[in-house]
Amino acid sequence: MLLLCSTEVNFHYFKILFFKDCVYIESRRPNTPYFICSIQDFKLVRTIFTSPPSPFPHPSKRDHLLMNVKWYYRQSEVPDSVYQHLVQDRHNENDSGRELVITDPVIKNRELFISDYVDTYHAAALRGKCNISHFSDIFAAREFKARVDSFFYILGYNPETRRLNSTQGEIRVGPSHQAKLPDLQPFPSPDGDTVTQHEELVWMPGVNDCDLLMYLRAARSMAAFAGMCDGGSTEDGCVAASRDDTTLNALNTLHESNYDAGKALQRLVKKPVPKLIEKCWTEDEVKRFIKGLRQYGKNFFRIRKELLPNKETGELITFYYYWKKTPEAASSRAHRRHRRQAVFRRIKTRTASTPVNTPSRPPSSEFLDLSSASEDDFDSEDSEQELKGYACRHCFTTSTPYPRDLPGAIPPPMSAAHQLQAMHAQSAELQRLAMEQQWLHGHPHMHGGHLPSQEDYYSRLKKEGDKQL
């Protein structure tokens, strides 16, 4: 309870404030109306002076009375975009808002929005008491009477999310709470033709193997005759008969003929050999394809988008695997850039012009990109050429007497540096690191052979140590 004093001429009025009462709070900003809050509780901060010490301390004038209040937001304190959505919903739900009490500007300024935001103020900031009524909806607010220091609220406001919400559960009915359904699409007629994205059947098993073999021999014979007529030599006929496209074309024709070999052969007489892939591409398209490979690499989606929009991505991939085997691809292939790898490094050999007393320069750290699993012969040739002039970074060996591909090849003996390092290894971790440096840093790839197991390595290491002793 708190006594609030107000002075009018020579009279003093006292109002008793209790918990949950609504009051005005002074605003420190000029030209701003009082804040409206509801009192939640009071807290007295006491400053006690006892001189001399006494079991019954006396309060002093420095005591402070604080209060925790819950905020009410005026219409002007709510963002305009949030309030306009509320006005629009009210107009849509009640015939453009003609019968709403909120249309009265006096009552409109009396609407508040409650919040859960709690703050602490000094009791000296109190400037008066007011009354706030709560209504369930805007229609019930018709009973509100605009008296002095009277307000009402219907909704709550969350300042963090900047949203208005109801203070009690409700069924959300209205245009703003309804989903926008698309137009109904009628079901297609079962008699009509419908386009589907399902897989297409291209082969059905069940054909006799002997009949299929005889059919393929006849199809290849017709392809060989057509190729010999076009090229003028028997070699051209053999090439046309041995192509995969010829076999695939024969199988597709057999499937389209409902696996009737006679009908399929009659259709193959008209077209025994499918159109070659190089004849499906014009000279200009081939030039643009090569240009795309140089600019974008094997990014066929980018090549199709930028240079060949009239081709499908699958056609580009098919043509690439045909084109890479042609002599033109060998001359057009760009030189591969080297990347750093901790496998080999170049060893500077001493020449006749190099002084004897010149201190040896440490090996260069420029490592080579060794290509593996190359798809063509050009990559393997480049790898062999680039491998020259490099040596093992541990034993500095540039050649090996052991064939690389010989199964079961035994690795060469360890160098003195590796033996010394292994002998001084005092733990399993150091021994593991020593084995990795000897066998895993490109050494087997240089000398050939396979990686030894851990047990074989330890037994061999022990034998080498016994020899040194």
TrEMBL record:
Stretch list, region Disordered: 349-383, 442-469
GO molecular function annotations of the record: chromatin binding; transcription corepressor activity; zinc ion binding
SUPFAM superfamilies cross-referenced by the UniProt entry: Homeodomain-like
ELM2 domain span: 169-272
Acidic residues compositional bias, start-end: 374-383
Entry keyword ATP-binding: no
Domain SANT intervals: 276-328
Segments of skewed composition (Polar residues): 350-359
SMART domains: BAH, ELM2, SANT
Low complexity compositional bias, start-end: 364-373
Ranges for domain BAH: 15-168
Cross-referenced CDD domains: BAH_MTA, SANT_MTA3_like
Keywords linked to the UniProt accession: Acetylation, Coiled coil, Developmental protein, Isopeptide bond, Metal-binding, Nucleus, Phosphoprotein, Repressor, Transcription, Transcription regulation, Ubl conjugation, Zinc, Zinc-finger
Superkingdom: Eukaryota
Keyword Glycosyltransferase: no
UniProt feature, compositional bias: Basic and acidic residues: 457-469
Compartments, as annotated in UniProt: Nucleus
GO cellular component, one term: nucleoplasm
Name this protein carries in UniProt: Arginine-glutamic acid dipeptide repeats protein
